[in-house]
Design a protein that fits this description.
alpha/beta; Rossmann fold; seven-stranded parallel β-sheet; binds nicotinamide-adenine-dinucleotide
Amino acid sequence: MRSLARVLVTGGAGFVGSWLCERLLDDGVEVWCVDDFSTGSPQKVAHLAAQRRFHVVEADVSDGVPDPGPLDAVLHLACPASPVHYLRLPLETLRVASTGTVNALELARRHDARFVLASTSEVYGDPLEHPQREDYWGHVNPIGPRSVYDEGKRFAEATAMAYRRTHGVDVGIARIFNTFGPRMSIDDGRVVPAFVRAAVTDRPLPVAGDGSQTRSLCWVEDTVDGLVRLACCDLAGPINLGNDQETTMLALAHTIIELTGSRARVEHVALPEDDPRVRRPDLQRARELLGWEPRMSVEEGLKRTVRWMEDVLG
Ligand code: NAD
């Protein structure tokens, strides 16, 4: 077990990053949060600003990662993560997944620090194996609009492993599946905020296609706990982090309508190009090697997200 005293989080002012910074601070760690605020914002970490051990640095990690001195770990989360953002920022997404990852790895190498890559279930593409185990190589369209993200993360994984083999950097790869909770951007098109926002404002819930496609939704503090466990060990991974309770998008829409008591109906909209049909992590590795599994039920997580959205929308 590694103990963490000083950690740098790229993308720390994003949705997952903000929860990760908070968790690390709660654990007594000094945290350097580096972010260019392209898809995140200083507001997401404003509640942490008064803490003496918390530092926010505005920087584009594709240009270089600021070096705050000795570090025990570099947790690399910086990357546009929702389709709305990476389709709007295709070249920036490729750049941060490639050059940004190299820069973050160089920082970890300089300080002999643990490096954790926030990779994604999107490396499995539209999977031909179900559920997805880490030894499945994926089914990705390399030239479609989503490829900037999917192939970017595949490149990032390859780079991390090459640094491990070539330079001995202590690299760990987390493949994160759909994560949800408060502080998600409410307008970035991801399914939970899109559905919850529509439901609490009594507007139609936009269900793509016939809604039979599945996702597995993991509460953000569970995902963050997996990332911290991975940071504290020396496993290379990759390791899936997600919830193995799978739901169709249509069922999710109806659950959210029920939880909010909304009068809203479902509205079927066009299916995005290369939208994966199914998604469910195989968690055997996470359970056996990290002693990790999701703890929060999807329903309770959704209730908390609804309460947060109601506050945000006033
Ligand atoms: P997010 O967009 O909320 O956070 C990403 C953060 O990175 C933002 O604060 C953004 O401003 C910052 N960023 C982007 N490009 C940058 C750059 N060049 N330099 C510095 N900062 C930059 O997204 P998120 O949902 O919090 O995702 C965080 C990470 O987790 C991403 O790497 C994403 O691929 C991965 N992930 C998330 C999910 C999920 O469901 N949320 C699933 C799989 C993987």
